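Project standup — Tuesday

K.O.: blocked on the structure for the chain from last sprint. Re-posting the sequence here as requested.
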Amino acid sequence: RRLFRFPGHVAGALGMMANWNLAALDRDLPRLAVPTLLIVGGTDKAIAPETAFSVQKRIPGAKVELLRNLGHLAHEEAPDMVAGVIVNAARGAGVLPAQANMGGGM
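H.V.: unblocked you, prediction finished:
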């Protein structure tokens, strides 16, 4: 609800969605040939979490990370948690080194 208070956010989201080609996306899902992680909020009211598991079955090797007690905007509700999930997945896929030094100190 709080994001609806920001007209720029609403306009940006609607503009993005207006340009989606869902038929092409649906057709091409099984052809994805890269490590795919679907991050879903367990209390998402906009898209049922079960949808991620259905999509997972259509993408070879895809994984789902279900974040309990987070909603559709999990990345805004708990950005550090979501970033950690992404970093761990990137490490597991060999995209990032096993332990990256994220700080500037010792």
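K.O.: great, moving the ticket to review. Strands lie at 37-41, 63-67. The longest strand covers residues 37-41.
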